[in-house]
Amino acid sequence: MGLIVCEKGYFCFDVDKKKFTARAGETVFLSEGNNFSIGELSDDLRVSILFYHIDPIREILGSSIVAMYLYTTLTPEPCYVWTSGEESDLARYIALLGRHRKSAQNPFDNRECKLLLLALTYRLCSIYSRRIIEEKNVAGHKIDTFIKLIRLIEKYYMQERGVAFYADKLCLSPMLS
What we know:
By secondary structure, the chain is an alpha+beta fold. It is built from seven helices and seven strands; from the N terminus they run ββββββααβααααα. The protein has helices at about 55-60, 65-75, 85-100, 105-135, 135-140, 140-155, 165-170, and strands spanning about 1-10, 10-15, 20-25, 25-30, 35-40, 45-50, 80. α2 runs antiparallel to α6 (about 140-155) and α3 runs antiparallel to α4. The radius of gyration is 18 Å and the shape is globular.
């Protein structure tokens, strides 16, 4: 997961050869596996940047992280530049996590860092969930089905892991490869 909060100025960048611009008050959300390169930037640019793996906290998050992953697969963009309204909070999380990288490693620091990542990831899930609801009218049936799937996963993920179960509940036919 990549997160870049533009606090001041602007910068232009490419993700998988597609051009984007982020300005002050916007956040760049990057998913894994994309080629990212910075182009033009303003002289007064100030950003907070964090790249991290979700795997160490995946078992704690349960199905919450699925919403972010599925959202990224449902929309065609290789990254998102959004004004979430939570840019200052996201930048604070990044700053706190940055301090832990510089401190001596001990069990308390490691656990606190893991908890900060967990809290940040929950915040990101909340942002993605709001975005899904905001875009529901635009995407129509696809987003409705997605929201129903997320609710089903949250309810049954401990008992049911098969595609056929969820496809049946959604009145869809499972695609098996």
